[in-house]
Every structure is written in structure tokens, then in C-alpha cells.
Design goal:
It contains 6 helices and no strands. With 187 residues, the protein is mainly α.
Amino acid sequence: MTNSISAARTGKGDMVWGILMLICGFLAIGIPLASGIGVAIVIGWVVLISAVWHLIFGFRSASGVGGVLWQILLALVYGAAGLAILLYPLAGLAWLTLVLATFLLIEAALEIALYFSIRRRVNAGGVLLDGIITLLLGILIWAQWPFSSAWAIGTLVGVSLIFSGISRLMLSSALSRGASGAARTAI
């Protein structure tokens, strides 16, 4: 009985998170430039924090003068990149969008190549379809760059949040049904 009560509590908490993810996903799609800038700022902070860690690691490592200098150089590069993104988030968003487009094009090429090596397997067409859609998305973002920076990252983050919210709601709903069924059998 205790497990069913804790499962029900967890299911409700997950349901709240799922609803919040859905709301944030729709907001991100509704205002993709603002959400894209938010993503750029978060990435800027992560890169800046990485710079600090490289600096700390450089002074704490026992890898000799060359290793310390290498870590300090990396810290400077990370710090400059992080500060540039934080100080100029629109430019940072534009570069992140270009990196995303490049990543999608490379991923599409690899998925299409994978299809040709597994084409005789059942459902291999799904890999080809995924590769073609990824290729089209990469071309769309690349061809419209830097203007695609206004919508690409924010929209993709929004879609991801929506699907994460839906999956969390589905899991929490199943967990709640399982907990209520277990509670009924315990009574």
C-alpha cells in the first residue's frame, strides 16, 4: 500500500512537470526568438563555467608546465566564447543556428548512408525517411541563415519540450492508473 501511495504522489508530480513542459513548449514555439536567445544565454553560461573549470583544473593538475599552459589556453578560449555569447546573444544565437544546421546536414548524410547499408532489413525505410526529413530541415535552416536564427532553435526546443511533456503526462497517467489499481486490490 505504501508503494501505491508514493507512486500516486510521484505520478501527480510528474503530471505537473508534464503540464509545465507543455506550456513552456507552446510558449517557445510562440516566441521562438526569445526562447532561442534564452538557449544562447544558457549555453553562454555553460561555456563560461567550463572556462573556470579548465582554469581550476590547469592549476590543480600535475601534468607539467605544458599541461598547465594548455588548460589556461583552453580556459581563455572558453571564457572568450562564453562572454561573447553572453554579451552578444543575438550573434551567439546566429552562430549556434549555423552549428545546428551543419549538425543536421551531417546527421542526415550519416542516416542516409546507414539506410543504404541496412536497406534490406524490415522497416529500414524509416531510417531513410528520417534522413530525408533531417536533410530538408538542415537545408532549410542553412539556406535561410542568419534569418533562420529567429525561429530555428526556439522552435526546435519548443517541439522537444512539447514531446517531453506529452511523454511525461503519459507516464504519470499510467503510473497513477497502476497506483489506483494496486490500491483497489490492497483494499
